[in-house]
Amino acid sequence: MEEEKKIGFFKRVKISIFNLEDYKIFIKEKFSKALKYLLLLIVIGTIVLAIVSTINLKKEITKALSYFKEEFPDFSYSDGKLNVAEKVKAYDEEYDAKLIVDTSDNISEDLYNQYKKEVKDGYYSVVLLKDKVFYVVGGLEYETSYTNFATTFGLSNFTKQELFENHLNDSQMPKITTIIWIYAFITLFVANFLTVIEDTIIVAVFGWLTAKICKISLKFASAASLAIYSLTLSIILSTIYTVIYSFTNFEIKYFSLMYMIIAYIYMIASVMMLKVDINKGAGELIPIKEEPKKKEKEELLEDVEDKKEKDEKEKKDDKKSKDKEEKEETNIDTEPKGSEI
């Protein structure tokens, strides 16, 4: 067990991808170790994806800020209310983004619903009213008050000029970038964790059934551990593919299917390797048919040896008895006879 404790994260990654014959080490460990490994793998992957997401979002935010600074009408914000000098309707074809601004007092519910309907088919869409904002991102709809945004970014009352001079200048960009990264990391981590846990359960069930077919007794917790390590290469490839896609839009058809097939192959291979190592001691693995045969063979050999020893002993006893009889006969013949009268 001391050797197991020395296996670091990157060594586990190497074993998971290149050394399937060492998977027997993992089933001797507690499932908690495999789960910690999985969490660290997800965290590292999420950090990378959050950085990529932040870079892309920063580009879009920079473009949006440039638009608001140069083309957007003058506006002011005070006590949770937004006031814009004129109504705006705009559309950006490159980003499929729609913007509607109407800060008039007492906008009817019908008009508000009409605005929402107009922007729903855009990938990025925003409707700015006097006291609230409605926005769409990737088909998901949100509605909130300006107070939430103002509190998040530490804003109070401001005009358009004050906003760009005091809060959206170059010195504030690191703070904005950090907020974007934290939001991206939390969102991506939750999504990745739920997805990978679901995949782990599916691969674990597949591995457990494979072990049953191969006549190997394997606990489900051990199968889950093997599933986690079997998914290592798939998770790494998925992270790399997502990074490439985010920068190039290069798409691989049926990648999600390939993702699972790779995990299944690793799972099958690991079970086959474990079956080969049964006689060398494979943790929780118990051979079902071979052991009884081996035991019967050993008992048969013992019986043969016992019978052989018994026969040899009987032969020795017979020989001793025969020698004794011959000796007695010799003594009788050589004994002196009495004188005749």
Description:
The chain has 341 residues and is α+β, with helices and mostly antiparallel strands. It folds into three domains: 15-51 and 179-280, no CATH class; 80-156, no CATH class; 289-327. It contains twelve helices and eight strands. Helix 5 links the parallel strand 4 and strand 5 (124-128). It is rod-shaped. The chain starts with a helix and ends in an 8-residue tail after the last helix.
How many discrete domains? 3
Give start-end ranges of low-pLDDT stretches.
282-291, 334-341
Order of helices and strands: HHHHEEEEHEEEHEHHHHHH
Count of alpha and pi helical runs = 12
Taking all Cα atoms into account, the compactness measure Rg is 40 Å
Q: Fraction of residues in helices?
A: 55-70%
Largest sheet: 5 strands, mixed
Please state the average pLDDT score.
Answer: 82
| CA-CA gap between termini | 100 Å
Tell me the strand order in the biggest sheet: 3-4-5-6-7
Number of distinct beta strands: 8
Beta strand %: 5-15%
What are the key terms here?
single chain, 341 residues, alpha+beta, 3 domains, five-stranded mixed β-sheet, three-stranded antiparallel β-sheet, 12 helices, 11% strand, disordered C terminus
